[in-house]
Every structure is written in structure tokens, then in C-alpha cells.
Design the sequence.
């Protein structure tokens, strides 16, 4: 017993309900497709400068790159010949595996390989990468554990063509939960970090951000909006609005009644930031991560949400425990 | 029975993962605990290192980088990182990695990377006369964005929106790399 009626069995039951209840995880396949598309865009922008960023004749020699990272970080480049050809071959393999991930050919294996490539390239030139690349890497790791090949994939297409039943998507929800917790962690940690400083609390943070010459200023800003950025009062309220919105999203995504609103707020924030700021693919990757909070289910070719080998009634679309489970717990 | 063990194993791994990531990313003073978990996460390639997005306070510096390559015949060739305000949205997106690199390499924590970068510039910027490079000097430039408010009200240093200050207020040569003949 831990005080007010909260015993270990209750905690374990809640844990099991949260991580091991079964639901339709076909949304993971959508996550795979969008993630792979963004990854390919990322690689397309890196491609013209692969030799410059990662090659032995580039801006950062292998020796120097090892000096500026923690000794615990690893990269395949630490074990391979330090040549331009090696870098290009590795990059080409990375692109091929990203394409295979998009197409859903052995997708979990591709996710594992993409994770290894992301570690290798990021640790080869750490100066080049930021939080967006951390999220790319963590998402690749989480994709490894999801049933990402069951729909929208080469495998599902082949099974459909052969008249075989579609792959099972009613699975324990824990891989999806990890992704949901990751997204919540980003919003929550961002709020706490902001509250530790003075500028967000005082309301001057957006003044500084909007005066940065590199990250700020992407598309034309209408005159009446530009006026807000000249008003310290408006800037303060916008800054506090960001704080409140991030906190609301972190909590609101977990409550059924506020989830849709939280999703809309989050997408609104990210699209606005993408319009005003040059943060490459970060906003789009965050929106991609939010997919796991939706309850979309992908129908099979026959237009049905099918299951095989499992009782369809076990499918749990909600983020909350099913009513019968709650009753059983009580 | 097999399923029971499998579920138990998954639970143990979930718990370990969540605790490690929580300690790594939650902005709480974990002290030495954080240092020891960092080793595990770094070896696993799962480090996140916190999500301080423009936090705890945003950057207050517009910075840029310049370099000068000196050649054996006494000639000199300058180089400067792009002026981001001059770029179109497409160019800004295309040059995003350059922006990241030039913004960060000037930092002291990357001082071990300076010789390598200087040597890259010496190879990239060739002399018109074909003379060999003998030295490269790296200089950082910056403009501090000062507080827009004082105790009395709006500061004299309030910057109007729309024209971010170019990073030419201060300059400081931070690395000189002598290039020996091959």
C-alpha cells in the first residue's frame, strides 16, 4: 500500500492498460510514409555537399570530428576507410534504404538501418545538425518497433495481389505510446526550459527571436502583422501565448475532450513558425509526429478495416482504456 | 507462458528506456545521475540532450564568419559567410546546413575543428596566380541585440522590426592557421 489506496497492483494494471491494450496501429504506416518523405527531402538537400560536410577533403576531417564529440558517440565512419568514395557509397545506401522505407520493403529493417545511418552521419559532423536531426534519429528508432509494413507498403500490395489477407494491425499499443510520449516530452520540456529563463517570462523573447538575421524572415509578412512585432505589448502577449499553447498541447493531447483542439493548436503553431522562420524541416517533422495522436484507421483495398487472427472487438482506437477494461479494473 | 515472459521483458525495456530518456531530456537538475545515463544513451545512439527551443532565453547575437587566405606570392583572398537577409526563401532553405555550420563553428567548444575548417578554405579558395596558400585567418563578427526595455520604458536600443542588424558591430580574429607546403 502506498498511502491513499494506490497499491502496486493498481499501478501495474494502469501500466499494462496504457502500454499493452490492443488497438489498430495502421496509423504507424502513415507515419512511416510521411517520415520517409521528409527524410528524403533532408537527404536531397544534403546531397550536393556530401563531400564538403563528411569527406576527408571537407570542412571537418575525421580526426577533428572525433575530437569535438563525446568519446561514447559512434559512427560507422570511425571504422571505415576515410575516403570520399566511402562517404558517397554510404550516402547512396542511406538514400536507397530511405526509399525502401517509403515503399515499405522490409520496412522495420530499413528503419533500423536508417537509424544507424543517421547516427553515423550526425556523429561524423555534429556541428551541422540540430534538434530536428535528433528527432529524425529518435523517430527512426521508434519506427523499428511499430508494425509499419502492414499497410501502404510493397508487402501489403503483394498480399492483396495474391489474394492473401492483409497483415495484422491490431497490436499492443506500446510502440505508439513511446512516440506519443516523445512528442509530449518535446512540448513539455520546451515549456519548462523557457520558464527557467527570464525573457519568456518577461515577454521579450519574441523581440529577440524576430531580430535574428538567419532564422527569422522567410516569407513576406503583411503590414498589420509586422506592426505586432514593433509593439512590445503585442510581442509579450504573443510570447506568453506560445508558452501557454505549448503547455496546453503537452497536456491536451492526452485528454479526449481537448485532443482535437490541441492538435489544431499544435499544427497552427508549427505552420506559423514555418512561415515566419527558417528552421528547415523541424516544423513538418513535429506535425508528422502528431499523426500518432489521431485515430485514423487505414482501410484495406476492399474498403474495410480488416483484422485477421484477432478478435476485431479488441481493437481500441482511443488513447484511454476501454470501458470494459475500466470496469474490470474497478 | 512464453507470452507472459515476452510481456515482462517488454515492460522492463520500456521502463529502462523511459527512465533514461526522461533523465536525459527533462530539464530537471539530475546531477551526476544525468552524466551516467548519458553514457548509455550516447552508446545506444539515443541521446536527445534536452529540448530547449529558444530557451531558456533566445539567442541575442547575429553572427557571421569571415576568413582571409594569404598566398606565398603575398596576395590575399577574402571569404565571408552568406548574408542571410539577402537570400530568397528557397536559398535560405537550400543553405540551411551552411547556416548551422557557420553559426556554430565559431564557438569555442568547437576550437578543435578550426584548423580543419581553415585548411578546407585554403584548398577551396585558389589563388589566381596559382600560388600556394601559407596562412588562413578566421574572424567572427557579431551584433548584440540589446534589451528593448529599461526600467524607464522603451530602450534607446529598440530595433525596429524588419531590418535585423547585420553582424558587423564587433569583429575578432579567433584563429590563425599556418599552412605548410605539401
Sequence:
Amino acid at each position: 500500500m502506498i498511502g491513499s489506496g494506490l497499491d502496486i497492483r493498481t499501478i501495474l494494471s494502469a501500466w499494462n492498460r496504457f502500454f499493452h491494450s490492443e488497438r489498430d496501429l495502421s496509423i504507424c504506416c502513415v507515419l512511416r510514409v510521411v517520415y520517409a518523405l521528409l527524410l528524403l527531402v533532408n537527404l536531397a538537400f544534403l546531397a550536393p555537399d556530401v563531400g564538403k560536410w563528411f569527406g576527408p577533403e571537407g570542412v571537418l576531417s575525421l580526426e577533428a570530428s572525433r575530437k569535438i564529440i563525446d568519446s561514447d558517440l559512434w559512427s560507422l565512419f570511425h571504422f571505415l576507410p576515410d575516403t570520399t568514395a566511402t562517404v558517397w557509397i554510404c550516402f547512396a545506401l542511406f538514400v536507397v534504404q530511405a526509399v525502401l522505407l517509403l515503399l515499405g520493403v522490409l520496412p522495420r529493417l530499413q528503419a533500423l538501418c536508417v537509424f544507424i545511418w543517421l547516427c553515423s552521419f550526425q556523429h561524423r559532423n555534429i556541428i551541422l545538425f540540430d534538434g530536428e536531426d535528433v528527432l529524425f534519429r529518435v523517430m527512426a528508432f521508434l519506427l523499428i518497433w511499430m508494425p509499419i509494413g502492414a499497410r501502404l507498403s510493397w508487402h501489403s500490395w503483394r498480399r492483396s495481389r495474391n489474394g492473401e489477407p492483409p497483415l495484422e494491425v491490431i497490436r499492443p499499443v506500446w510502440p505508439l505510446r513511446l512516440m506519443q510520449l516523445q512528442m509530449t516530452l518535446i512540448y513539455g520540456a520546451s515549456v519548462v526550459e523557457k520558464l527557467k529563463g527570464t525573457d519568456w517570462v518577461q515577454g521579450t523573447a519574441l523581440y529577440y527571436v524576430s531580430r535574428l538575421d538567419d532564422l527569422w524572415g522567410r516569407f513576406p509578412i503583411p503590414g498589420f502583422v509586422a506592426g505586432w512585432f514593433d509593439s512590445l505589448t503585442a510581442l509579450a502577449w504573443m510570447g506568453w501565448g506560445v508558452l501557454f499553447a505549448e503547455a496546453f498541447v503537452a497536456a491536451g493531447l492526452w485528454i479526449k475532450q481537448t485532443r482535437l483542439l490541441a492538435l489544431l493548436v499544435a499544427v497552427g503553431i508549427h505552420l506559423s513558425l514555418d512561415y515566419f522562420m527558417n528552421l528547415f524541416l523541424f516544423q513538418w517533422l513535429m506535425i508528422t509526429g502528431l499523426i500518432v495522436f489521431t485515430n485514423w484507421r487505414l482501410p484495406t483495398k476492399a474498403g474495410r478495416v480488416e483484422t485477421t487472427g484477432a478478435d476485431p472487438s479488441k481493437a481500441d482506437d482511443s488513447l484511454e482504456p476501454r470501458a470494459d477494461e475500466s470496469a474490470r479494473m474497478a | 507462458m512464453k507470452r507472459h515472459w515476452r510481456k515482462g521483458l517488454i515492460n522492463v525495456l520500456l521502463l529502462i528506456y523511459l527512465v533514461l530518456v526522461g533523465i536525459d531530456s527533462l530539464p530537471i537538475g539530475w546531477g551526476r545521475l544525468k552524466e551516467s545515463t548519458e553514457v548509455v544513451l550516447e552508446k545506444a545512439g539515443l541521446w536527445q540532450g534536452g529540448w530547449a527551443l529558444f530557451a531558456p532565453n533566445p539567442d541575442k547575437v547575429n553572427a557571421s564568419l569571415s576568413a582571409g587566405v594569404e598566398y606565398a606570392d603575398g596576395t590575399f583572398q577574402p571569404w565571408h559567410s552568406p548574408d542571410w537577409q539577402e537570400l530568397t526563401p528557397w536559398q535560405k532553405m537550400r543553405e540551411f546546413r551552411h547556416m548551422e555550420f557557420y553559426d556554430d563553428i565559431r564557438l569555442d567548444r568547437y576550437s578543435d575543428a578550426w584548423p580543419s575548417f581553415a585548411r578546407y578554405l585554403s584548398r577551396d579558395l585558389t589563388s589566381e596566380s596559382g600560388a600556394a596558400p601559407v596562412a588562413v585567418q578566421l574572424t567572427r563578427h557579431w551584433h548584440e541585440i540589446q534589451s528593448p526595455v529599461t526600467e524607464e520604458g522603451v530602450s534607446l536600443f529598440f530595433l525596429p522590426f524588419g531590418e535585423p542588424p547585420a553582424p558587423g558591430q564587433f569583429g575578432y580574429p579567433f584563429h590563425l592557421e599556418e599552412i605548410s607546403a605539401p
